[in-house]
């Protein structure tokens, strides 16, 4: 399971060290793609295949489905962790998530996310203020 929050730095070539605790779960090769809220989603290959299978069941005759699939899959890249534990984040994805230097990895159960540190801090601050309100709105949510 992918959990926790880790701060890292993007180098000039667009590479970043993947937290060692995430490397075990993500594997040596994993998928990185556009995420929501200006972040990137990282999926272990087995999770990616499960997600792909579920997405294939969506009705392709709906414009929203086609638009989502195009954006989601066109931004996806299979990346490989190098001997130093780094991955190269493609320029398209760095631009999407506004990654410049300082980045934050967060674990979200079956996937990890990469955020610009500035965007994450703003998002986290806004979300933490409404965390209890959000949890009350979720049906069947029990801790």
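Sequence proposed for the structure above (143 residues):
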């Amino acid at each position: 399971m992918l959990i926790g929050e880790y701060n890292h730095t993007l180098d000039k070539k667009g590479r970043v060290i993947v937290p060692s605790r995430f490397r075990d779960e993500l594997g040596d090769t994993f998928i990185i793609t556009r995420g929501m809220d200006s972040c990137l989603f990282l999926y272990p290959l087995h999770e990616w295949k499960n997600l792909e299978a579920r997405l294939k069941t969506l009705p392709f005759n709906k414009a929203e489905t086609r638009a989502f699939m195009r954006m989601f899959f066109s931004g996806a890249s299979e990346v490989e962790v190098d001997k130093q534990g780094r991955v190269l984040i493609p320029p398209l994805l760095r631009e999407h998530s506004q990654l410049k230097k300082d980045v934050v990895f967060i674990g979200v159960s079956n996937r990890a996310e990469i955020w610009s540190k500035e965007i994450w801090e703003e998002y986290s601050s806004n979300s933490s203020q409404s965390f209890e309100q959000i949890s009350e709105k979720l049906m069947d949510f029990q801790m």
